[in-house]
């Protein structure tokens, strides 16, 4: 075994005591390749830009920052260091709640009567009137059979298909029912009135859920919430330019 002698002068600290020195043997670890900076892109609920600014506004140059407001898409987009390729972007969207999406209210979602009956039964908690929920579950469960039965009878009587389809639909379903669900993600529940629209094509029946009240409330909320966010941002960062598109 060979010996390597090392002459080492150990410096002393301010108190005159030698500083501890650790000698390690073996190969040094391979240095990692340098990485380019990464762009920070965060998407969240409508208040995401405000929440970011509340904690970090003192770290940014407000004069090189902007906020884009898009009311049609119900969103705000905060861009920090706007001329830098590696700029930071924080976007917030006013999103429909999970419950609204699952019910498919004011969308193109189509329900088979039996499946809608099962869905209502499992989501009874969102109904304002539990007895109304039970009645809907029972009516929808037998809805398609009743439609087909009445269609057969209408053909035998006078063959007036269109008029009798409408009569069957109108007589079998309630005019409307009430739900208590959040319209937007992260917001409190709202009471809305919902109607069931039926599309009968021969023996095929599909249902859709429509709420004019929910649509009106969403339009009112959209502008109200966005305006509240803009005013709050102005209070936190008054020098940030805010642009509507």
Strand content: 15-25%
Order of strands in the sheet with most strands: 1-4-3-2-8
Could you give the distance between the termini? 77 Å
Helix content class: 25-40%
CA radius of gyration = 32 Å
The quaternary structure here is: single chain
Number of helices: 7
- Low-confidence segments, given as residue ranges, are none
What's the β-strand tally?
Answer: 8
The domain count comes to 2
Instruction: Characterize the main sheet.
Output: 5 strands, mixed
Short characterization:
A hairpin with a 6-residue loop joins β5 and β6. The longest helix has 25 residues, at about 210-235.
Task: Characterise the protein shown here.
The chain is 36% helix and 22% strand. The chain is α/β, with parallel strands linked by helices and 245 residues long. It folds into two domains: 40-94 and 222-244; 107-210, no CATH class. The model has no long low-confidence stretch (mean pLDDT 84).
């Amino acid at each position: 075994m060979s010996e390597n002698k090392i002459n080492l002068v150990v410096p002393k600290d301010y108190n005159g005591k030698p500083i501890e020195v650790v000698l390690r043997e073996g190969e040094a670890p391979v240095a990692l390749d340098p990485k380019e900076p990464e762009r920070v892109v965060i998407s969240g609920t409508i208040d995401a830009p405000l929440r970011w600014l509340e904690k970090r506004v003192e770290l940014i140059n407000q004069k090189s920052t902007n906020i884009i407001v898009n009311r049609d898409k119900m969103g705000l987009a905060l861009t920090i260091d706007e001329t830098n390729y590696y700029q930071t972007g924080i976007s917030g969207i006013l999103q429909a709640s999970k419950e609204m999406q699952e019910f498919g209210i004011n969308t193109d979602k189509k329900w088979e009567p039996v499946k809608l009956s099962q869905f209502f039964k499992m989501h009874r908690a969102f109904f304002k009137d539990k007895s109304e929920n039970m009645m809907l579950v029972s009516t929808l469960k037998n809805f398609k059979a009743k439609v087909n039965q009445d269609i057969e009878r209408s053909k035998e009587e006078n063959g007036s298909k269109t008029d009798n389809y409408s009569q069957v639909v109108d007589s079998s379903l309630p005019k409307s029912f009430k739900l208590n669900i959040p319209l937007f993600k992260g917001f409190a529940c709202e009471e809305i009135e919902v109607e069931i629209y039926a599309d009968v094509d021969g023996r095929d029946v599909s249902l859709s859920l429509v709420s004019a009240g929910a649509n009106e409330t969403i339009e009112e909320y959209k502008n109200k919430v966005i305006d509240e966010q803009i005013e709050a941002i102005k209070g936190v960062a008054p020098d940030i330019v805010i642009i509507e598109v």
